[in-house]
Write a structure and sequence with these properties.
With 461 residues, this protein is an all-alpha fold. Helices cover 74% and strands 0% of the residues. It has helices spanning 15-24, 26-48, 53-81, 83-100, 107-133, 138-169, 174-180, 183-192, 200-205, 209-220, 246-271, 273-279, 285-312, 314-334, 340-353, 355-367, 374-402, 405-426, 435-439. It is a multi-pass membrane protein. Belongs to the major facilitator superfamily. Sugar transporter (TC 2.A.1.1) family. One of its GO terms (molecular function) is transmembrane transporter activity.
């Protein structure tokens, strides 16, 4: 009778895991902060720099275009050169480019700086999440990766709050201080990140067994070694080209499509929240405070999803998230002249329900691909999903003028409902699998909620 081996994935959560989760949260927090802050100051920037509708759309979409450029390149560099080095360089870049926005005097220069911010943000998605995923125990992997998205929304919520305060106290140049304010949280996270070790899974994939073993002993204790790490040997190579064909190509299509459907309405709402709410007849402080309230509800929705991710399962959560959030947008389209309270309630319902899809953006890509291409897969999904997000964000002000508020809401609803269909068709269930099993094509997870395959039958991906 065979005896199942011990695995670091079944080790208890320790102090290192908790610290790494906090350190890794710095990237998503800053991502949410710098990408959302533009929505707070877009009206002020438009007046100060005399922006046309064309430039408003370009500046709002510029960071998303940058994410498209930086996502795959950042993931590829992370898989090639390691998680640790890219981890620090990328955070420094986000801080520097954010500060540079303070001195802009033209629309094109603001576009350039936000494009560069987007490139750095795009690179951060695969860096932070792949490093964390490769250290976490099986039971905590889903909730703690989901918590990274929660930190994204926390960053966005703080951005709206800080932005509103600075605009009220800093005068005509308040928008400059708002855009540059990311330097404060960025510096704090940069200091906290020092001393983080390299991923032992990545080291093992490069044949650096002694270094991997030393990291495992340091993190899990002297009784553990690389023999307890469920990871294939370095002679079993999977190249980045695997993302474009065979089983991994299908997984890549699923991740890209659901991620796109999750963020297209969301980024459009974030970039133009005051304008959308104004179009829905919310004026003055209703629009400003409504934007802050909806942002905090996005955070609350992610918090609920994080708590339920293991109990509910990945697949079921994704389908229900798209379905109910899409229904909330349909109701907004049917009631464009509703009272401010009704509008805020429906927007709030969308914000809460879409949390399930949002938290899975970091979970699924890290679970469905092996170590050799994990960061590349996250980066490529980040890049491809931002094509739709950038186009959607660019079209929002045009759509509000040409199609009207109701039809704009209906278009956003169709995107969410399409996400539900894609999830029903392609979403697997991985909550009971270790990282190697989930990533193995020879052990493709079934659609049932509790379907762990025996390790003895798993192909080492």
């Amino acid at each position: 009778m065979s005896v199942s081996r011990r695995s670091v994935e079944d080790a208890p959560l320790n102090a290192f895991h908790r610290k790494l989760t906090v350190y890794s949260a710095g990237g998503p927090f800053l991502d949410g902060y710098v990408l959302s802050i533009i929505g707070v100051v877009m009206m002020q920037i438009s007046g100060a720099l005399q922006l046309s509708a064309l430039w408003e759309g370009l500046i709002a979409a510029s960071a998303l275009i940058g994410v498209f450029l930086g996502g795959f390149l950042g993931g590829w560099f992370t898989d090639k050169y390691g998680r640790k080095v890219l981890y620090l360089v990328d955070l420094i870049a986000i801080i520097g480019f954010s500060v540079a926005q303070f001195w802009v005097e033209s629309a094109w220069l603001l576009f350039v700086w936000r494009l560069l911010i987007g490139i750095a943000v795009g690179a951060d998605y695969p860096i932070a999440t792949s490093l964390l995923a490769e250290f976490l125990p099986r039971k905590q992997r889903g909730p703690l990766l989901a918590a990274m998205v929660l930190m994204w929304f926390a960053g966005a919520a703080i951005a709206y709050l800080v932005g509103e305060i600075l605009l009220r106290v800093a005068g005509d140049d308040g928008w400059r201080w708002v855009l540059a304010s990311a330097v404060v949280p960025g510096a704090l996270f940069l200091i906290a990140r020092s001393g983080t070790p390299e991923s032992p899974r990545w080291l093992l994939s490069k044949g650096r067994r002694a270094e991997a073993d030393a990291v495992i002993k340091k993190v899990y204790g002297p009784d553990y070694s690389i023999a307890d790490l469920p990871e294939p040997s370095s002679d079993q190579h999977v190249s980045v080209w695997s993302l474009f064909h065979s089983g991994y190509g299908k997984r890549m299509a699923f991740v890209t499509l659901f991620w796109t459907c999750a963020i297209v309405p969301l980024f459009a709402i974030y970039a133009f929240a005051p304008k959308v709410l104004t179009a829905l007849k919310l004026t003055g402080d209703w629009a400003s405070y409504g934007s802050i309230a909806i942002t905090f509800l996005f955070t609350l929705g992610c918090l609920f999803a994080t708590k339920l991710i293991n109990r509910m399962g990945r697949r079921k959560m994704l389908i229900h998230s798209f379905l109910w959030s899409g229904l909330a947008l349909v109701l907004l389209g049917l009631n464009p002249d509703a009272s401010p309270t009704t509008v805020l309630l429906l927007f709030g319902a969308y914000a809460v329900f879409i949390g399930g899809a949002q938290v899975l953006e970091y979970v699924y890509p890290n679970e469905l691909f092996p170590t050799e291409i994990r960061a590349s897969a996250v980066g490529l999904a980040t890049s491809l999903s931002r094509i739709g997000a950038a186009v959607g964000t660019y079209l929002v002000p045009i759509s509000l003028v040409s199609l009207g508020t109701a039809n704009t809401m209906f278009a956003a609803a169709l995107i969410s409902l399409f996400g539900a269909l894609i999830s029903w068709w392609l979403a697997p269930e991985t909550s009971q699998l270790d990282l190697q099993q989930a990533a193995s094509l020879g052990n493709a997870p079934a659609r049932t909620e509790r379907s762990p395959a025996a390790p003895s039958t798993a192909r080492k991906a």
